Amino acid sequence: MNDRLRELPNLLAWENGEQVASSVDWSPGRRDEILDLFREHVYGRAPVERPASMRLRTHETTDMMNGRAVRKTLSITYEGPGGQGELPFVLFVPKEATKPVPAFVLINNRGTGLADPDRQRVEGFWPAELIVEKGYAAAVFQVEDVDPDEHDGFRNGVHGLFDSPDEDRAGDAWGTIGAWAWGASRVMDALEADPAIDAKRVALVGHSRVGKTALWAGAQDERFAMIVSNNSGCTGAALSRGKKGEQIEHINKQFPHWFADNYKQYNGREAELPVDQHMLLALIAPRLLYVSSATEDAWADPASEFLSLVAAEPVYQLLGHEGLGTDVMPEPDVPISGETCGYHLRTGDHDLTTYDWQCFLAFADARLRNSLNE
Ligand code: GTR
After folding, report:
1. Domain count, the chain
2. Range of the domain at 98
3. pTM (2 decimals)?
4. CATH number of the structural domain spanning residue 198
5. Which pLDDT belongs to residue 28?
6. Model confidence over 172-196: pLDDT tens digits?
């Protein structure tokens, strides 16, 4: 056993030290305890789930991709004490589909240029044509439409709408990653309402800061059948204890708005955190989970991303499934998968590429189409 695994908080021991005896104790049970620890110490608590005021509007339906897909432009509106918000998103649905199709949702933090809804620019970051060709719907939303990626004192975006402006901000109030995860759940609400979509087979994908977001969204919202976390590194897939590259202190200093304020107590004190990131991955069990790394992405630390997936395996097993099924890190560009989890290490830089998507799609072809949800 890798020595780093011995240092981790025990997934299968209750906070009072007793062992989790069987799958019956997982959910409701130990799973809720872990989820609450992440809310309290890391990502913060969202003050609202689906707002009662939420409305969905379809603005336009257009034939695209040489008639192979229909593009829908939609928006979700909601009201909070601080005013009204609007989250636009785009959805391509394969045209030849005769029944509801599974879908891939990309959370995009890199601007519409890399996920162009008009397809004037086609980039590997969001190969919507490839996704559609494989029989999936492809949806995308922009993070800044939910909450800006800057430290604005939580005045703008959904924080401005739903947080109480009068009170001091609580140590466990949601940060920006929590807000983006909330946005992903609202898009899921919208997909559930669309008869063209098989909402029991929706995969949520994020790269880097939104790879962290995809994991947090999947941990909280069990409607997502598959989560893909690409190069998510620190406070994403990677274990914090013993991590190389970016550490908690770096991330909290550079991005003070991403997490709950409480998380700053753990700057340089990883060993004192009551959780580590394998516990976040385990919250996705028994659903499908794919983690991907890149050889040049030392800041994210591929070895710590891989080991985290290995360390989540006991929960998949507790629930009667195989996770990744191995603790041997594969060579670059050799994707591996077990019954419910997949992993690859791409040669190259911190990025989301067509190769990564091909691996996600191959995994989904094998696992999501016959997912555990049925
Ligand atoms: C980096 C940050 C990483 C990662 C990345 C990104 O600067 O340190 O945690 O989130 O940004 O989103 O590209």
Report:
1. 1
2. 23-367
3. 0.98
4. 3.40.50.1820
5. 96
6. 999 999 999 999 999 999 999 999 9
